[in-house]
Design a protein that fits this description.
The chain is an alpha/beta fold. The protein is 28% helix and 24% strand. The chain has helices at residues 6-18, 69-79, 96-106, 155-166, 198-205, 218-230, 251-254, 275-280, 282-288, 305-312; strands spanning 4-5, 23-28, 55-61, 110-113, 116-120, 139-143, 188-192, 210-215, 237-241, 266-272, 289-301, 316-324, 327-334. The strands form three sheets. It has a seven-stranded mixed beta sheet, sandwiched between helices. A three-stranded antiparallel beta sheet has the order 1-3-2, with helices on one face. A three-stranded mixed beta sheet has the order 4-5-6. Helix 4 (155-166) runs parallel beside helix 5. The longest helix has 13 residues, at 6-18. The chain is globular, with a radius of gyration of 21 Å. It starts with a strand and ends with a strand.
């Protein structure tokens, strides 16, 4: 399906999956010679919107024996108020092995930093020309690439992962933990806007004790839980669905967590989301952080860093800004 409004792309994907599609891919719809539309743009009118292009192509895959794919596509579009004159669609047969090979070719191991790799589930070190990621000393984060944001190919994800690695959680933080319990070796992580769970899972692999990941999208919550299981940390990770702003209930309280597990209870708080939600959610993220806890905020452009720092300045100090390309990571420490 070509030239779909970006605001409808994810809902359309959900409907198609519910009606029998095996997978969905959302891409930018770009006519010939048109410039690439940058998302995460520094555009006040885009604040609060999802990470998606204004116009999208939605590619859906159905099983070979699925006979009414076209009718399902038309019905799903109609449910969202789109008539057949509002978009173009094509239907073609794709051999399963060709599709799988193309997907696997597009996602290869990503070296985030020395000793830290993101590895798709299907990669086999013995079959790769460059299998340096398989060395035992490396931390290999296994991911099933899918709908959720966070596959290691975006600068903001890499900035956050490098920061987590540089914390030296196993050696530094466990001996100086600020946890408010008697166990001073406990390192709890709050990953607000977890997406694929990449940051929370990485923190656990790097030595954190437990992690909570939240996301507004139920598909992301499911994806994060699956990726935690792939890395054998699912017993230490919990994924929760949350609302988009402070008007929604606090997700841990909504699930019945006691106060002592929610307030000032995390030694690492990280959020890789948009500038608008980061600024609005400052009081909530601050309440998670224990005295002396470290904070990592990304999903923003370098030019937006001062505003984010100002929003968190009441609760945090020792701010630093790290950049990659035009993107930024703001780090700080909770005042004691």
């Amino acid at each position: 399906m070509l030239d779909i409004p970006g605001a409808l792309a994810e809902d359309l994907g959900d409907l198609l999956l519910a009606e029998g599609a095996t997978s969905i891919s959302v891409e930018e719809y770009r006519p010939d010679n048109a410039p690439e539309e940058k998302i995460f743009a520094n555009d006040p009118s885009s604040e609060g919107l999802k990470r998606v292009w204004e116009r999208c192509s939605v590619v859906s895959y159905f099983p070979p024996d699925f006979n009414n794919a076209d009718a399902v596509v038309v019905a799903a579009a109609a449910a969202l108020g789109l008539s057949t004159s509002d978009f173009c669609r094509t239907l073609e047969e794709v051999r399963a092995q060709d599709w799988e090979a193309a997907i696997k070719e597009s996602y290869q191991p990503v070296r985030v930093a020395d000793g830290l790799w993101i590895v798709p589930t299907w990669c086999d070190a013995a079959k790769l020309q460059d299998n340096s990621w398989s060395k035992e000393k490396n931390v290999n984060l296994i991911l099933e690439p899918g709908l959720a944001f966070g596959t290691g190919d975006h600068p903001t994800t890499r900035l956050c992962l490098k920061w987590l690695q540089a914390l030296h959680i196993k050696t530094n933080m466990t001996t100086s933990s600020t946890n408010n319990t008697n166990n001073n070796s406990t390192i709890r992580v709050m990953d607000y806007g977890t997406g694929s769970g990449v940051l929370a899972v990485a923190a656990l692999l790097l030595g954190a004790t437990t992690a909570i990941g939240t996301d507004v999208e139920h598909l992301a919550v499911r994806s994060a839980a699956q990726n935690a299981a792939l890395n054998n940390v699912n017993d230490r990770f919990t994924a929760l669905q949350c609302g988009a702003d402070l008007n929604a209930p606090e997700p841990m309280e909504a699930q019945g967590y006691p106060v002592e597990e929610r307030l000032a209870a995390f030694q690492i708080v990280v959020a890789n989301i948009l500038r608008g939600p980061l600024v609005e959610l400052a009081p909530r993220l601050a309440q998670y952080a224990a005295p002396g806890a470290v904070l990592g905020l990304s999903g923003i452009l370098e030019t937006q860093a001062p505003e984010v720092i100002e929003a968190y300045g009441f609760w945090f100090e020792d701010f630093e800004v790290k950049t990659e390309e035009s993107w930024a990571l703001v780090t700080g420490r909770r005042k004691k």
